[in-house]
Amino acid sequence: MLLRLAEGENAAFRKLYDMYYSALMDFAHKLTGNMAEAEDITLRTFAKLYERPPELSNMTHLRRWLFLTVRNDSLNYLKKRKYIQSNERNLQDSYYSQASLDAIMTEEELVRRLYNAIELLPAQRRRIFILTYLEGYKAREIAELLGISENTVNTQKKRALVGLRSSLGIVVFYLLFYR
After folding, report:
1. Which CATH architecture has domain 94-179?
2. pLDDT in tens, 105-131
3. Please, which residues have CB within 8 angstroms of residue 176's CB and are 6 or more apart in sequence?
4. Which of 120, 122, 139, 171 stands 20 to 30 A from 113 (CA)?
5. How far is residue 100's CA from residue 86's CA, in Å, rounded to a whole number?
6. 34-37 contacts at long range (C-beta below 8 A, 24 or more positions apart)
7. Cα–Cα distance between 41 and 35 in angstroms, integer?
8. pTM for the complete prediction?
9. Residue 133: what are its φ and ψ, rounded to 5°?
């Protein structure tokens, strides 16, 4: 499919769009808190993919590229939004502006720590976590996709969450998943 995409085949692009649009939209919305901006970021990501497909060796690399592009654009949006907001405020609001910037930077750091922790998970556990929580697959679908039992998928999901909770700490884990 990547070869067909690199050759400019519209059907390959459409299939990738259908596969990833929803998960990327959800991810961008979680990062930005703004549905319209999340849609813009997602569409810009696909425009970048269409205009100049990255040279990737497999679908896992493509998935990573898509999510990293959305993440980076979302973080840029947050920085830009913060810059505009801070320029509109007068000096009396400078303390509040710094607190907001700190909150954004904290959120960026949380997301960065989460991705680093995900990368440290064992390969199958990481793949199941990404398919479940970033791409929105159900346990049954993952089991079929990976050729394993649904029980194995559920066990690996639980172990992934336990591993992330222990590597991120309970407070960080709570902030990422339950706010």
Report:
1. Orthogonal Bundle (1.10)
2. 466 677 777 788 888 899 999 999 888
3. 110, 111, 114, 168
4. 139
5. 9
6. 34/77, 37/77
7. 10
8. 0.46
9. -95, -25
